Structures are given as C-alpha cells and as structure tokens.
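Summary of Year 1 activities. Much of the first year was spent building the evaluation harness for sequence design. The harness presents a backbone, in tokenized form, and records the residue chosen at every position. We chose the following record to illustrate the format because it has been used consistently in internal testing since the harness was completed.
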C-alpha cells in the first residue's frame, strides 16, 4: 500500500478514480469513452450541470454567483483576474511563491499595492496587514503549499475580496458571500490537473473600462456555460466524482473534522519529537501542507529518513526544491491511517539515531 503525501497532483478518492475509469471505458452507457464524446451532447451537459450544482451545494454558494470550469490552471487566473477587476489599483498580500506570481501578473494590467509581505521571515508567518479602501480589490492566497502557512478565516474587507484557494478549497467551510471571487487549480482537493474552478459574483464584473480579450473575459465563459472552447472533459468528470465523494462522507464540515485530526496527529509528533521541528509559526500552520525539517544536530540525515519512509510505502514527503526539508500534504482524500504510518516512521527514525 502506498501512502500518498504528494503536494499536487495529489491523492484522489478511490471512488472518483474508479468512476472515471468506467467513464473512460463507457460514458453514461453511450458505448463511447468520455474522452471521445461531444462536449455539446446532452449527456455532457448533465455532467457539467451536476458538477456546478455540487460546488454550490457543498460551499453553500449564494445566488448571484457563477461557477466556471476553465483551463489554464490557477496561474492563468493571475492575469484574468486583473483584466476583469483592476481599474486603477489592486492590493495584494505577499505570503509566498504563488502570491508573488499573482502580484507580478497583475502588474501587467495596473498598479499593485503590496499591503504586507512575509519575505523577511522566509514566509514562515502570515504578516499583519490592513486592507486599504482605495483599491479595486484585495487578493490573498489562503494556503501556501511551499512554506506551510494558511489563512483559515474569511476576512472582512471594505473592497472586493479575492482569494486563490487552490490548495485548501473544500477542506473547510468558507463564507463565499464575503468574496467577489474565489479561484484555484483542481489538483489538490477538487480533482486532477487540467481544470480550474472560478467562483465569481456577477456584480463584480463589468466595472473596468479596459478592453478585455474575449477569452480572458469571465462574462464570455458565464454566457457560454464554460463551453466557449472545448472543455477538459476528463478532469471535469474527475472533479464531479470527487465532489460526489465529498458529499457522500458528510461534506465540508465532516472533512474539516478529519483534516484537523490528521494535522493534530502529525504536528503533535513534530512538536514532541526532538529530531524534527516545524518551520511555520504555530499560529499560522497549514492543515493541508505540513512543512518540517530535522533538528540542526541531525543535518545530513534527510535522505536516510526519506529512504525509511519509502520502505514503509510513503511517497511525496520531500520538501519543495526551493526550501528543502520535508512536506506532508494532508489533502482531503488522505486517510488518517497514512498519517499514522508517517508518525510511526518518525518515531522509528528517532530510535535509530
């Protein structure tokens, strides 16, 4: 058995994998694979409608919002967002690599104000910030996969609030009504790479005087029901089945309970084990990406721990190449039993040293 701690693409529910395999063989009893059906067919319309309805149900999305299923990854939204919502100036919170990329993309469209940055602490802390009232919107990245920090509250904002929730969407309840837009890549908790979700409030659009390229205009995709171009049918189907699995186990409240239990189990071991130490400030620790290192006195033993973990079926715990150390991603589909295996390995490694 493999214990998949990969940061993304990441572990998926077996139920969703099995359903997608069947659809690849024979979609909806059509005798055709989902990879070869027409995206204009009635059967595909039903699948898209079900996927959007599941998003709305699981997150209690209010009326007046649209759920778009697009290509290009969250990185494409770094530019689409300012094209649609940046008239004069936007405010951004710099909490890590992906936040920085979003900032740089927005600068192509207009002025960007960085309200705070965690750079001086190597992004181990979410910096204190104040949202200005003279900007078009405020953007933050809710979970930082590389540095292991997370914002788990929905800020009150005097301006339109926008969040990149690529790596913690559906892991906890979110008050969508506070946001003008939430977006993210699917390949953490919402499916596999190839489709991007965009939850956008309709009245937040159409306020910029800038000319927007047709494909970059969210209103184009709203009008065309995310079918302006051929959609990524397989990733969308996988997303639908992943959301069905989440609903079947009790939705986001239940998965939040499970995620907290998994994170508590691993962080308790990190804090009590003299060989390991966490890298993110305790008050800002992510429930999705647990980043940790060896104590300085055991420097050079990282590969030994990686090899022990591999011998126990653990994959994907090597830290991001830019920071090193270890990273255990505890996404929704990861069972707590896998976390226990990792904790047992940590205890065993400590006894070996």
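For this record, the design step produced the sequence shown next.
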């Amino acid at each position: 058995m493999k214990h998949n701690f990969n940061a993304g693409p990441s572990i998926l529910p077996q139920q969703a994998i099995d359903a997608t395999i069947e659809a690849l063989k024979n979609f909806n009893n059509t005798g055709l694979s989902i990879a070869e059906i027409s995206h204009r067919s009635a059967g595909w319309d039903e699948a898209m409608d079900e996927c959007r309805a599941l998003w709305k149900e699981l997150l209690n999305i209010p009326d007046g919002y649209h759920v778009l299923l697009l290509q290009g990854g969250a990185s494409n939204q770094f530019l689409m967002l300012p094209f649609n919502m940046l008239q004069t100036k936007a405010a951004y919170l710099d909490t890590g690599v992906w936040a920085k990329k979003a900032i740089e993309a927005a600068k192509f469209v207009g002025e960007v104000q960085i309200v705070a940055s965690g750079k001086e602490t190597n992004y181990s802390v979410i910096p204190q910030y104040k949202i200005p009232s003279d900007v078009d919107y405020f953007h933050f990245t809710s979970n930082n996969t590389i540095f292991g920090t997370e914002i788990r509250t929905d800020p009150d904002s005097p301006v339109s609030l926008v969040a990149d929730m690529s790596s913690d969407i559906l892991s906890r309840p979110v008050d969508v009504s506070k946001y003008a837009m939430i977006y993210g890549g699917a390949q953490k908790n919402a499916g596999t790479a190839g489709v991007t979700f965009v939850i956008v409030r309709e009245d937040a659009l159409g306020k910029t005087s800038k000319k927007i390229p047709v494909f970059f205009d969210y209103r184009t995709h709203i009008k065309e029901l995310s079918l302006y171009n051929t959609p990524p049918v397989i990733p969308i189907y996988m997303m639908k089945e992943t959301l069905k699995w989440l609903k079947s186990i009790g939705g986001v409240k239940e998965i939040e309970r499970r995620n907290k239990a998994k994170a508590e189990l691993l962080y308790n071991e990190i804090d009590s084990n003299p060989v390991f130490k966490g890298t993110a400030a305790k008050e800002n620790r992510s429930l999705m990406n647990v980043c940790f290192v060896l104590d300085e006195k055991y420097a050079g033993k990282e590969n030994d721990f990686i090899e022990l973990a591999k011998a126990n079926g653990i994959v994907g715990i090597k830290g991001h190449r830019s920071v090193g150390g270890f990273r255990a991603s505890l996404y929704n589909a990861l069972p707590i039993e896998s976390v226990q295996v990792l904790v047992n390995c940590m205890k065993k490694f400590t006894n070996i040293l």
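The first helix runs from residue 14 to 25. Quantitative recovery figures across the full test set are reported in Table 2.
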